[in-house]
Write a structure and sequence with these properties.
Layout: E1 3-6, H1 18-25, E2 32-36, H2 42-54, E3 58-63, H3 68-81, E4 85-88, H4 92-99, E5 105-107, E6 112-114, E7 119-121, H5 124-137, E8 142-145, H6 153-163, E9 168-171, H7 177-185, E10 190-193, H8 195-199, H9 209-225
Parallel strand pairs: 1-2, 1-10, 2-3, 3-4, 4-5, 8-9, 9-10
Antiparallel strand pairs: 6-7
Helix pairs in contact: 3-4, 5-6, 7-9
């Protein structure tokens, strides 16, 4: 089963009412909940992760800061929060050292990531080769900014799947039922949905946030049954 990760963010920033959003969707069936490393005060993140753990959810922090020192501070915050997964970021060797001795799983970005909101550039060959290097370093998996890629996102995901022996989380503008279905059918370990799908209430017009997540979960279930 492909894991659906809900990231209540808008243009790579965690929304400031994230706890209210969590309370609205916690009974929707979502089991994976994440944040970006830019957003509210630390106290909000602490309370959010506490509530997630109370509900038995798996937790994530996606690092979108591209400056090395800021990246390191975000990793330290993720460790303090006790999240289960760090996804994103590009300073792989340093991150591996920082999380050593914790139970955090690490999924760095592959490819050249630029700007904010993040975009992905580079050839498929370059991105795959970087994934192979990260695999050799011992990361748990890789994070591909699928529909923020300047090329063909489906070809990129397929190439990574065919070339790596570690799992993939697909992120980045997976914001329609068609895209959710397509990515899920490709056998990724997980995919994220967030602002442009769930918060924008794009998947179920007129529905609430829980309706959006339920629709996404159904789409994944149907896609994986057809494999």
């Amino acid at each position: 089963m492909v894991n659906l990760i809900f990231m209540p963010t808008w243009y790579d920033v965690t929304v400031y009412n994230v706890i209210d959003v969590f309370e609205e969707v916690k009974d929707s069936g979502i089991k994976h909940f994440g944040v970006k490393d830019i957003g509210p005060e630390e106290e909000v993140y602490i309370e959010l992760i506490r509530r997630c753990k109370r509900e038995g959810m798996t937790t994530y922090m996606e690092i979108v800061r591209l400056n090395e020192q800021e990246h390191i501070e975000s990793v330290k915050m993720a460790i303090k929060l006790g999240v289960d997964h760090i996804i994103g970021g590009k300073f792989v060797e340093h991150t591996i050292k920082l999380i050593k001795g914790t139970n955090i799983r690490y999924w760095p970005y592959v490819g050249k990531v630029v700007g904010h909101p993040c975009k992905l550039t580079g050839t498929i060959e370059e991105i795959v080769n970087e994934g192979k290097r990260y695999e050799a370093l011992g990361v748990d998996g890789v994070n591909v900014l699928s529909y923020r890629y300047e090329g063909n996102p489906e070809e990129l995901i397929k190439a990574l799947k065919d070339s790596l022996n570690i799992p993939i989380i697909a992120t980045g503008w997976i914001n329609t039922l068609e895209r959710i279905r397509k990515v899920a059918s490709m056998g990724v370990w997980g995919l994220t949905v967030g602002g442009t799908s769930i918060l924008a209430k794009k998947l179920v017009p007129g529905g609430n946030l829980s309706d959006q997540l339920k629709a996404a979960l159904r789409e994944i279930e149907m896609a994986t049954k057809l494999e």
